[in-house]
Amino acid sequence: MGMTTFSIQLPESACITEFDAKVILAGELYERGRLSLGQAAEVAGLSKRAFIEIMGKYGFSIFSDSIEDLRRDIKNAWIK
């Protein structure tokens, strides 16, 4: 999978780490259906399991609105 790199400047007053920004972006894109669970985990720099475990801390749900996405994620989880 190809990746696009972005550079974003935030004011220090935002008090956010690069890791937090990656997780927030990945979680938001996952919830919007733009990334699969595996892709979102990769964006965050985490394993799928680790990403799932911290999603709630950032206010995201691991449950997709799409049944097909859920089926694909379950299937992919068992393949690895």
Give keywords.
globular; 80 residues; 4 helices; single chain; mainly alpha; 54% helix
Largest sheet: none
- How many helices does DSSP assign? 4
The overall average pLDDT, rounded, is 85
* % residues in beta strands: under 5%
- Alpha-carbon Rg, integer: 13 Å
Overall geometry comes to globular
The helix-and-strand class reads mainly alpha
What's the domain count? Answer: 1
Characterization of the model:
- The protein has helices at residues 18-31, 37-44, 48-55, 67-79.
- It is an all-alpha fold and 80 residues long.
- The longest helix has 14 residues, at 18-31.
- The protein is globular.
Entry summary:
The protein is mainly alpha-helical and about 80 residues long. Helices cover about 55% and strands about 0% of the residues. The chain has one domain.
Secondary structure elements and their pairing?
Blueprint: H1 18-31, H2 37-44, H3 48-55, H4 67-79
Helix pairs in contact: 1-2, 2-3
